[in-house]
Amino acid sequence: MAMLDGVRVVSFTHFLQGPSATQMLADLGAQVVKVEPPAGAFERSWSGPDAYLNGESVFFLLGNRNVSSLVVDLKDPEWVDVVLRLLDDADVLIESFRPGVMERLGLGWERLRHRNPRLVYCSLSGYGSDGPYKDRPGQDVLLQSLSGIAAVTGAADGPPTPVGASIVDQHGAVLGAFGILAALHGRERTGRGARVESNLLSAALDLQIEPLSYFLNGFIGRRSNSGVSSPYYKAPYGVFATADGHLTLSLNALDVLAAVFEDDWFRSVGEDSSYQRREDVNERVAKHMGQRSTDEWSVVFSAAGVWFAPVNTYADLVDDPQVQHNKSVIEINHPTAGAVKLLGHPVLYDGQRPGVRDVPPDLGSANRTVLTDLGYDPEDIDRLQAKVGN
Q: Which InterPro entries does the UniProt entry name for this protein (predicted)?
């Protein structure tokens, strides 16, 4: 599990995109120092539904395991010098400030690549490092709207509908970690670091590689009147009401539908016309689905090899047999928060999932260790610590 052992990462990240990308690297053994202001990173004092465990933000706990915390004052030249010394021997810098902030702090790419030519410098932003939107706030639901995700989701006569999770933030995190690993691999050949950039707009577009490619090549999709089909897929494709709940159907041939519903009407449509007539197909499927319970249809569909799935709530999800088998949910024991359940690292390596070496850190818990390792004597450490109140 220590595939990135020896890789030293200095993280100037906050909110979700940056910390999540950094946590992926830390899970694999990278030594990550999270640089925080004296008041702590934003996510220490914020949590979406005001979810705190004994005063600890769940939002902070979900994205900062296996890292250490260094409190600095980046407005103080002496502390900036500490950070520069730390970066002189680092492999990766990852930051998620708005474009221009790191340059104003004296920690921009142009300066650092001359000090440390092997440094991989990763910037994660909302829209990119330049361009007309570079100074706009970048946040998940804003990008779902701007990128078209919200506009293609929901019923044809309903409002645009964002997805109910921070999918753009998290995909941006994955792209950031991917870019860092690619640059580290390239450095093995060239001996030189690289500037890696990703942003939420690019992540939102990448999530739509299929529908956007259809659109770009002249195929114009429309949301379904029933609200159950993708703008670009043949019916049935989406959620249908049963007599007592809901089931989701996906990519089933009309012959299969004719058999399970005992209705030859589906064969009369013809596969070649199934996209053009998807509203008719949706209506017919919906009529059949409402006549039996979810459990009854599940038995019928399983026997016939129909592509379907239950519509799980989160409560259903955590009890799902495959989720439990995959051990997707882990539990850590935090000294303040107590028992905390989180999602584990999403990838297996030789059948194993990386574990938790260190729980999300207390603010500034690594200060004295980092300063000592950088060669500061005890008197200087005490003086620097007094400046940041740590």
A: CoA-transferase_III_domain, CoA-Trfase_fam_III, CoA-Trfase_III_dom_1_sf
